[in-house]
Every structure is written in C-alpha cells, then in structure tokens.
Amino acid sequence: MFEACFQRILSKCVEAGIVSGHTQVVDAAFVEANASLDTFKRKAILAWQLLKGEAKQIDTADLSELKPPFTAMEKIAKPTKKGRNNTTHQSLTDNDARINQKPGKPSRLYYLSSMAVDSYKHVITHIEANLADERDSKHLLPIVDKLSYTLNHYGLPIQYLLADGGFGSGQNGPATCLSIGSMLL
Q1: Which of 20, 24, 85, 159 is the most buried (most CB within 10 A)?
Q2: Is pTM, for the whole model, over 0.70?
C-alpha cells in the first residue's frame, strides 16, 4: 500500500516537472522502532539441538529455560557488558527491530531508513526500511537498482549519485559507476 501511494505521488511530482533525475543524493538514518527494550529478550540456542536431533517445538515461555550444552557455547552466546546485543537477543514484539546506539544517546531499538532525494527540488525519489545492525554500504547497490529502474521508467536517467562515506566499499564504487555512470562518495 505504501509503495503504491509513494509511486503515485512521485509520478505527480515528475509530471509537475520538479524531479530531474540528473543528480540523486542517498543517505541513511536510524528511525526508532515502536518496540520496548523490555521485550528485547535472549534468543534460544537451538543449533546444538538440531545437530543432535533433539529439536522440538517450544513456546516463548520455554525460551528462557534453554541452556547451551557446554561452556564454549556459553562463552560465544554471552551478552556484552551492557547485557544485550543483536546476536544473542531479539525483540519479542518486533523481530525486525535492532538494538543500536546513537552517539550520546542510550541504546534503543531502531530500523535503518535509506532514502534518495532528487537534488533539483529536493523531492524524495526512493525510501526503504532496513535492519539497523547492517552497514549502509550493504544497501547501496539495491537502492541504485530500484532508483534507476523507477527514474528510467519516467525517462529520467541518473547522471550523478552522491552519498556519504558510510555507503563506500570496495565493491560499491566500480559496480555503481557501471550502473549509472558517475558516483561521488
């Protein structure tokens, strides 16, 4: 539903001539999830049960009672000093929310919002939500592919893509340049 609404509004912006497609600016930001840290609980360790054929269906009440079979597994699965991380814990109310911390702020559950904006009149041309524990650079190529497809549909090829250093990686530079022509990080 959101995607259909967004595309309809974008098409109206293109018709009005306020989207040029020439230069796109990509950035990402944390968006706080509507989930409480109180629901951020330790994940069950089931890998050893699967290997031994001992896996059985359990309900969430049983998750806290599961113990790893040996100390090496406990050391791997132990949370950090603060007690919680995305490897060992997850939100029971929102499985996609990830714990993260903005500088100078307490830890909270977030999503990563990735967005592209047309530089001509600052119209948002692409937006998506991703997991907050992933790097920006992981999402650049899929964003560029979707953005290029959308703007090419309107006859507006991307000439330049601007992004901050968080989107830079050895893979992204050459691949993105092949995809659109020019990219500045």
Answers
A1: 24
A2: no
